[in-house]
Amino acid sequence: MRTNDAQMLVLFVLADGPPLHGYAINTAIEKLTGARLGRGSLSGALARLEAKGLIERMELRGRQLPFQLTPSGRETLERELASTARVAEQLFETAVPDRIGYQDRIAATEFAQSYKQLAVEALNVRPGQTVLDLGCGPGTDLAALAEAVTPSGAVFGIDANPGMLERARARTAELTQVTVQQGDIHALPYADASVDRAHTDRVLQHVADPGRVLAEARRVLRPGGRLVMAEPDWEALAIDHPDLELSRAYTRHIAERIVRNGALGRQLARLATEAGFTVSAVLPVVTVIRDVREADQVLGIQRNTERAVAAGYLSDGEAQRWLEHLAEGPFLASATLYLTVVDVPAGGGSHSG
Ligand SMILES: C[S@@+](CC[C@H](N)C(=O)[O-])C[C@H]1O[C@@H](n2cnc3c(N)ncnc32)[C@H](O)[C@@H]1O
């Protein structure tokens, strides 16, 4: 027998406390979830639970009687909670994936494939040109950029992480036009006005000073050169849960603690203007994920929930309610990334900003 959410909440609040009247049950539910049940929903839940023998009115003569759990109600609650916990355990990935494997996993999603293709198209690369992939990671986009410049052009992949670079080198060993090098993109090892195109994909969200990287990109790009940045806005991460406050707390934790520049997506047009670029387009790319496993592969739902608890964004009980509902579904999450396309004014001299 399945109990619905309202019935589960009634069983839950009666399990630990004293017997309660209907209005007190609803107050306890409000304390737990942040919202009261509607009058019909509460009375329906009470009537059904009573009919199933899961709750009963206490026998106190001469008074309106409060409800208490029956032994069978307690058993049902424990069974349902254990079953939800089992589902959650099997569903969510607990080990931290290795960084390269994680990037490959994201790159394999339909969403990444489609926005990455859009980004390369927006770069408008011509054969023979020189392109930088800033924060190239395991070389995910180097082959597509190499194809666009053709063997007569040049692609430079730059990244700070040696493991990522090793993978990027192995991946592009056959592509003579690609060079992979270690470096910090806050200080690019290229001459002023020496490249035609530059690209970032989920990189500026992590750097210490995005404005500094933009200034460097502006310095090395030629007049008429273009920079395309694919960067998320984690404050726009929306995960459905009946208790909106839990969704907000989860998103706030990701945007404030997990990602260094959590709202960068919306800020790039302004920062690029300040760095001397002309903003040509800001294209929103939104994905909706309705499969909790698929979302977990990208969002690390359980791991990040545990971190949110450690950081004080969620209590243990809230985290449990959050994960249990996500595991049970129906699930829906949506994430937003912006493709920001900016140009160096043609014939524009150096920019001092
Ligand atoms: C999320 S990964 C994205 C990799 C790649 N662009 C892709 O789409 O698969 C971010 C990459 O940026 C690199 N990175 C972060 N800060 C950097 C910095 N200051 N200089 C160079 N690389 C950096 C990291 O090492 C990592 O490989």
UniProtKB/TrEMBL annotation:
Gene Ontology biological process terms from the UniProt entry: methylation
Annotated organism of origin: Streptacidiphilus cavernicola
Keyword vocabulary terms for this entry: Methyltransferase, Transferase
Protein name: Methyltransferase domain-containing protein
One Pfam short name: Methyltransf_31
Residues of the Transcription regulator PadR N-terminal domain: 10-78
Superkingdom in the source lineage: Bacteria
Keyword Methyltransferase assigned: yes
Alphabetical list of CDD domains matching this protein: AdoMet_MTases
Coiled coil: none
Molecular function GO labels: methyltransferase activity
Residue span(s) of domain Methyltransferase: 128-235
